[in-house]
Amino acid sequence: MKLYYLQGACSLASHIMLKEVGADFEIELVDPSAGRTASGENYRDINPNGYVPALDIGEGTVLSEGVAVLQYIADSNPNEAFSPALGTVARARLHQFLNFGAAELHKSWSPLFSDASTDAEKAAAAKKVATKFDYLESELSDGRDFLVENQFSVADAYIFVLSNWANFQGIDLKAWPNLAKYVDRIMARPATKAAMQAEGLI
Predict the structure, then answer these.
(1) Are residues 89 and 179 in the same domain?
(2) Are residues 109 and 175 in the same domain?
(3) Residues 9 and 28 grouped into a single domain
(4) How far is CA 24 from CA 56, 57, 73, 163, in A?
(5) What is the pLDDT of residue 32?
(6) Which H or E element spans position 69?
(7) Distances in whole angstroms, Cα of residue 79 to Cα of each of 30, 149, 152, 154
(8) How many whole angstroms separate alpha carbon 100 and alpha carbon 20?
(9) Is there a single domain that holds both residue 87 and residue 175?
(10) Is the per-residue pLDDT at 172 higher than 90?
(11) 26 has which bridge partners?
(12) Given Cys at both, which of 70, 122, 200, 201 links 196, Cβ 3.0 to 4.6 Å?
């Protein structure tokens, strides 16, 4: 397998989970502005949408969309990646947090990472991100370590990456103590450290 990634982007969640499950894979950096991979390939030939992640699983099959890639990793490795059985509340909760990450928190960050955004737009985005953090703070207020059934899953890898972006945007997670502890907890996992080291983030 090959994971196409951008340093520190949402593809980091897939990278973490591939490490978690002990997958045999390689990584290749993508330069979205140039539309090329590190080896010089036209990235849109790999993923027509042009963004990361993309996971080449062999035999001409490439998966895209971060949540789909994460769910594939989970379902292919149910014990290591905690993929609850279909039709269970736990499975629905897993999708709840994956979709919250994609539709709410991830999208809220966009103006903060865009050079085209005005200061006012960035300030508004920071306030919106804060409301998403408020929700996660509330969810974690019951003392659990992880989001679903108190067991580490792909949802945690994704929410960790999206929450940890606060550290790159000058947003102090101390305002959300439960979330801050959650981020630190996942940061301390060997797979997280290995993926971040491989991407040159730590």
Answers:
(1) yes
(2) yes
(3) yes
(4) 12, 10, 12, 27
(5) 86
(6) helix 66-76
(7) 31, 14, 11, 12
(8) 22
(9) yes
(10) yes
(11) 2
(12) 201
Residues 57 and 51: their CA atoms lie apart, in Å, by 17
Sign of CA dihedral 144, 147, 148, 151: negative
**111-168 pLDDT, tens per residue?**
999 989 999 999 999 999 999 999 999 999 999 999 999 999 999 999 999 999 999 8
pLDDT in tens, 62-100: 999 999 999 999 999 998 999 999 999 999 999 999 999
CATH number, domain of 58, equals 3.40.30.10
The 10s digit of each residue's pLDDT in 27-39 is 999 998 899 999 9
pLDDT-above-70 percentage for the chain? 100
Integer Rg of the chain from CA = 17
Q: Are 103 and 190 in contact (CB under 8 A)?
A: no
Retrieve residue 38's tokens.
Answer: 């590190």
> How many angstroms separate the CA atoms of 184 and 115, rounded?
29
Residue 116's domain comprises 83-189
Q: What are phi and psi of 58, to 5 degrees?
A: 95, 165
Report d(CA 4, CA 11) in Å as an integer. Answer: 8
Q: Are residues 19 and 69 in the same domain?
A: yes
Q: Please state the domain count of the chain.
A: 2
